[in-house]
Amino acid sequence: MNYSAIKLHSVKNIETFYNEYDTLLKVSILQAIKSLVPFSIITKNNFIKFKLLPEYLKFKLSKLNDSTINAVEEKTPKIQVIVPLKIIFKTLNKYILIYCPLIELPYTDLQGNFILNGMKRGLVSKMVRQNGVYFNLRRKYGEDIYSAQLILNERSKYFIELFKEGIFIYNKFNKKINLINFLHFIGLNNSTISSISRYGTTEIFKNFYYFNSKEDIQELEKIKTLLNMLNPELNLKYLKNKLNFSRHLTSLKNSLISRTGNFLESSFAILGQDLISILDFLLDLKFKKRTLNDLDHFGNRKVESLGHLISAHLEYILPNKLFKILNLLFKSKFITSSLLIENLKESFNKNKISIKELLTVNPLIQYLEEVNSVSELMHKVRISSIGPGSLTQNQAGVAVREVRPSQLGKICILDTNEGPSSGLVVALASNARINKEGSIETLIHPNKKLRSYSKFLNSFEQESFLVSFENLIPRKQSFLNKYSTSITFEKGEIKSKTNISDTYYKINPSQLLSYTENLIPFLFYNDPTRCLMGARMQTQAVPLIYRNKPYILTGFESIIASKTSNLLRAYQEGVITKVTSYKIVLIDLFNREITYYLQKYKKTNQGTFIHQLPIVWPGERVLSGQLLTENQDISDSEFNIGNNLNVLYGSYYGYEYEDSLIISQKVLYKNIFTSIHFDIYEIKYSKYPIDTPEYSTLDLPKRTSYQKRHLDKLGIITEGSKVLDGDILISKISVSNLTLEDSPFSELIFSLFGTKLRQLQDKSISVPIGNSGRVIKTELFAVTNKATSTYGQNYLTLRVFVAKQRMLQIGDKLCGRHGNKGVISNIAEEAELPYNVMSQYPDIITGPLGVPSRMNLGQLFESLFGYNCVLKDKRLLINSLLNNNLNNNYTKTYLYTSLQSLKYYTGNKSLLNPYIPGKLLLRDGRTGYRLKGGAFMGTLYYSKLIHMVKDKVHYRTFGPYTEITQQPIKGRGKGGGQRFGEMEVWALEAFGASYTLRELLTSKSDDLISRNNLQEYLLNNTPLEPNYLPEALKLLIRELHGLSLNLEGFMVTDLLDGKLLPLNINY
């Protein structure tokens, strides 16, 4: 079989986001500063000129903690951009050179992540409209209104609309302005306008001039306002020379020609000619000489990442900051150069530009998903059309959300969010890349008969090529080739063509999907919704202690390993000299020593771990870019995060109800799905105010010795301790003296015990419910610099790392690669499960009804092919398009052929029964009798999801209550519980528990008199009085009184001869 046509390519698309940030540091900041120099100030004493020297920019990284290898321990590591400033004294004929910190940017690590407040964060790239001119048509009051939208940058958007009474230009900040008045203001008269325009001598232009003569002269002020908004820093004289607007449009010329035609005729377009050309284009649309292009064409969109976000913010804030500094200097009175330098440094330090606030509030800056390597990769290739300065969920219609032919090969056709953001948050396709302009390009491959190379094309360029989605295999009889059909993409449309020519390009169908979708074998046998579910669940699978590589491969497992950022790669070619568990030492070709430090059990944002292992040995020669390590979910350069298990599709005493799973005890005993998770507990000790210090101690009030059994003499947990729910990890108490020093009681206490009365408050940290584990590390940080602590009050920080070993239990969730997920309902003994003639027991039993109802048939093919691979001890790399490339039933034929060969390979003729093909004959493990009919059993690749039952189940015996109603408080984190509501009252009424119900509604609730009586009864053994009215009933009576409804109570007794005794319920 020829697999050369389905060769998988790995495109460098993730690196684009890293390179954009490098471009920001090296180019964008330099250009922004260059556009603002030089500045000069005239004072009473001197003429002083300030000259920024951007070519000598310096970058300074904030000092990291010496005890750590990476920057995670630093709360917010920063890069300071230091600008050299040259101060020239004209009158004194001398200059001074000083270095001023101007900007603080976030530090990005080698993986492209940046750290804010100690947490790794990533940016979801934003998709916006390309800069250019877009024409549109809308109807208003029965009239067709043609309009042109000019997008110059993110903040500069202008509109030109064509009405019956004239043509107007405006932006979103001011009212409409007549375009003819605008052209007159910038220096064009009527004759000049008529000579430039193709419609200058027509009747419609005369109408424009006629309506223009009626305009009020006050519109001149509106024009000045509009021009000033184009560039507030430049004066009106500069704008009148027509440089600003045309500078933007000139840079757009090349990209506009491909979208709207070459209607900008002059190679050096100026403002008036550009606007008149746009007016001619609108008139062409009005007279049906041109047609409107597709506004939602994918070529009209571009992707903006972190570098563009920061550079756009700097363009807006940098001039204001510099002008503010100069104004401060102008107002200050300095005489000597030393005083000037001091003022300058103080001004720069006060007005330092920090990007941290921008990144903290931006919704596109999110905590990095690090459940596994795939989840981090998919988070980095995610693209959103909603965000600041872009669309909202309510504004986006179907045209923006739907999949268009121009998106194929650039955006994954399956991967998107569910709910209101469906179609707005998407993922980059596997072989797509982002060019320097922000456009997304895809890779196409030439036919063998074409003497060409593979090339990257954007959406507009791709329309000029004939692209086929299938690999056409020519027949021996050439006349039969004209009957072969192929799905092609041509001129923006998808067609089914016969007798396709030899001059075509082809796209691998895997390019239509993203990375997680391409990890699903037999993808095209599944329903699209189940494929999306299976892809999402692979990003939620937790790394396991013991894992296996899948028997059925798609080829993208190795591509994931090449894309992930959690592996170490060689920067230079060289020889390995030393390998340990935590570092690798390499000597390169220039005899330089390079040390690579490995991450050992590092906690991720989601509580999983990153653990790297070396895969090289001393003396090995490595090449540049070669992998040096593997990690928790990548081994042998392949992504694997699960295990191969025998799966039986059948029934087991009803435990398979609603897609539940029955697990064999063998899976539990072998730790097949055992995972490790981390929790970090941190506490800070304050020394202010002085009269209430905080410290750790072993003498904790109201704590049992069992809870303190693992604490040392300082009240800190010892490393290696096995802690359970409720155990104390870090002790902390605050002591404050009572204000009773002069009272006789305090003197009595002092004379008896030798100490004063003190108030102790226990602030210790205990292990929450369901988070038992083992303490692996404790860290102690002494704060010596007041500036680094919160308000200068904390003098000590203590951090405890707890590792949790989560074994499989009832309630955990497992999933396959086809969206087939289930919750464990029973863990059965292996001897009680069915078995086949080869004495093989299933590891998992799942209900068979989930397959036809959800139409994910790919798991059936994976089961049988996987079972074949287990018995033959081999792995299978399967192409999902075997049927399309060869014939319609090739996969089914190949499957039956492999099962037939397996029957002879093992000598077991019952493996392929012609009456029940694909099924096996089983016996009951409890009775030994043969089960009726056959059952489907095979080998599937299963993973464990992060949705574990220990994180969700919560219980409490006692805890805090609310002050008013005395009900348990809400929230799992606060130790809350189930409130006793109406339905719980019904339950007690059904069981006749009247005394318990009365106690709950009165003494244990808001009956204040009964609560006091009960307290006296328990403490002083006083008589227990009957219950009174609770406060809730009294409140209800008052509310009824507000509605003019009176509520009275009566008592019926024999002592009054049948008369009613009124009860006073007023208070």
Written account of the structure:
It contains 27 helices and 55 strands. The longest helix is centred in the first third of the chain and has 26 residues, at 306-331. The chain folds into 7 domains: 15-119 and 306-357, no CATH class; 131-295, Dna-directed Rna Polymerase Ii 140kd Polypeptide, Chain: B, domain 3, CATH 3.90.1110; 369-518, no CATH class; 519-558 and 633-674 and 807-953, Dna-directed Rna Polymerase Ii 140kd Polypeptide, Chain: B, Domain 6; 567-630, OB fold (Dihydrolipoamide Acetyltransferase, E2P) (Beta Barrel); 676-806, RNA polymerase II, Rpb2 subunit, wall domain (OB fold (Dihydrolipoamide Acetyltransferase, E2P), Beta Barrel), CATH 2.40.50.150; 997-1063, no CATH class. 26% of the residues lie in helices and 25% in strands. Strands 20, 21, 22, 23, 24, 25 and 26 form a 7-stranded mixed beta sheet that branches. Strands 1, 2, 3, 4, 5 and 15 form a 6-stranded mixed beta sheet that branches.
Distance between the ends = 93 Å
Relative helix content: 25-40%
Helix/strand structural class: alpha+beta
- The CATH architecture of the largest domain can be given as Beta Barrel
**Share of β-strand residues:** 15-25%
How big is the Rg? 38 Å
Q: Specify the number of helices.
A: 27
Features:
single chain, 1067 residues, alpha+beta, Dna-directed Rna Polymerase Ii 140kd Polypeptide, Chain: B, domain 3, seven-stranded mixed β-sheet, six-stranded mixed β-sheet, DNA-directed RNA polymerase
Task: Give a brief outline of the structure.
This protein has 1067 residues and is α+β, with helices and mostly antiparallel strands. Strands 20, 21, 22, 23, 24, 25 and 26 form a seven-stranded mixed sheet that branches. Strands 1, 2, 3, 4, 5 and 15 form a six-stranded mixed sheet that branches.
